[in-house]
Amino acid sequence: MPKPTRKRASGKPHPDFPLFRHATGRWCKKVKGKFAYFGKVSDDPDGQVAITLWLDRKDDLLAGRTPRVKSEGLTIRELLNAYLTSKRHLLDTSEITPKHFAELYACCHRIGDAFGLTRPVVDLAADDFERLRKAIAKTWGPVRLGNEVQRVRSVFKFGYDAALIDRPIRFGPGFKKPTRKVIRLNRAKAGTRMFEAAELRAIIEAAGQPMNAMILLAINAGFGNSDVANLPAKALKNGWVDFPRPKTGIPRRCPLWPETLAAIKEAIEQRPKAKSPADAGLAFITTHGHRWEKVGVSEPDPDTGKIVITNNNPVTQEFGKLIRTLKLHRRGLGFYTLRHTFATVAGGSKDQVATNAIMGHVDATMAANYREEIDDSRLLAVANHVRAWLFSDTKQE
Fold first, then answer.
1. For position 308, what pLDDT does the model report?
2. How far apart are CA 327 and CA 330, in angstroms?
3. Which of 86, 118, 186, 214 shows the smallest number of beta carbons within 10 Å?
4. From CA 343, how far away is CA 351, in angstroms rounded?
5. Contact by Cβ (8 Å): 268, 211
6. What is the per-residue pLDDT for 298?
7. Could you give the CA distance from residue 143 to residue 336 in angstroms, rounded to a whole number?
């Protein structure tokens, strides 16, 4: 007589129950290839709460939409999750950079820490935002404070635009960016953000490769940290660099000095093999075989939903070590100061249009709408003007 087959326990309250117990201890449903979760089994062993949530979100999930949250019950956590999900889609389609996403992610964490994740969004009032601004201002300067205020506002504006809340949030009269006067006074207090020619020559002479080449690129072409970190070798051709700004995508073109070309050639000859195929075409690679910019966003953890953000800039760190060794460090000075220095000195060429073109600045004037190109001779004149300033034997006053 054959033995009866033993049925495997499904863990469901009854055979027709549409959800199953996930290995993480949550009620789960696989919809369009993705798992949707409906609370802990330990808190809801009969699945009554879970089935209510499933029926409430079923139409949105089957349609491939993010389930809508009732506006009167929207919590800070739900708003931040919806906002970051939207921004993650833009990151996945390369419409925003990993660095920009990292800044938004950090901002959302600060909002959650300040207000509490379970607090209803509609419960927030002007004094909450005033306390948040005060806390940020204790550690950051006016410029960074202004940027953070704008990011916070964008989070709550998203909630209203996405119909997650039925009215705009009132931030109060105090939750504003610092005035231009405050920013000017702070900059005056910090001192001039540029290097003198003699200081810069000392820095170039003391720098090893590839930092030496990156410094020369920065003062030659107004490059910033991300520019040198993400510069593809193919952008260097026939003594020129053609490389759109990673931050804005605006085209840039600049002639390279003989000193810059020689330094780049030496750096590329010494360049280690890249560990990642995505970095193989870069002009500069660290001694460990990595990109000179560590910005990344991990995939969400299947259990917690959390992601890991990496936002590190070795260019900043190594340049900081260099100028400290030379005793040239002071508040506000870093690798990006080279871009400030280029802009300041290049302005003396009296061709601001060509200077802006080299730097990749947005030109919103009417003339720019009609200007199709800038003659290379004008770009060369600006680059030569900065070179004469840097390598001149006489001190520039």
1. 65
2. 9
3. 118
4. 11
5. no
6. 63
7. 15
Residue 164 is given by DSSP the state S
Average pLDDT, stretch 141-146? Answer: 90
> What's 176's DSSP letter?
S
Kind plus residue range of the DSSP H or E element containing 276: none
Phi, psi of 119 (to 5 degrees): -75, 135
Model pLDDT for residues 254-292, shown as the tens digit of each residue:
999 999 999 999 999 999 999 999 899 999 999 999 999
Indicate where the chain has its CATH 1.10.443.10 domain(s). Answer: 197-391
What CA–CA distance (Å, rounded) separates 61 from 38? 12
Average pLDDT over residues 125-154: 93
Residues in the chain: 397
Q: Per-residue pLDDT for 11 more than 80?
A: no
Does the CA dihedral 257-260-262-268 come out positive or negative? negative
Local confidence band at 64 (pLDDT 50, 70, 90 cut-offs): confident
Q: Residue 100 burial (CB < 10 Å; 0-12/13-18/19+)?
A: middle
E strands present in the chain = 20-21, 26-31, 34-40, 236-237, 240-242, 253-255, 294-297, 309-312
Compute the distance between CA of residue 360 and CA of residue 354 in angstroms, rounded to an integer.
10
Task: Give 17's DSSP letter.
Answer: -
Report the top-level CATH class of 72-190. mainly alpha
Q: 41, 13 in Cβ contact below 8 A? A: no
369 vs 367: CA distance, rounded Å: 5
Residue 221 identity (one-letter amino acid): A
Q: How are beta strands 294-297 and 26-31 bridged, if at all? A: unpaired
Mean pLDDT in residue range 51-77: 76
Show the tokens assigned to 73.
């019950």
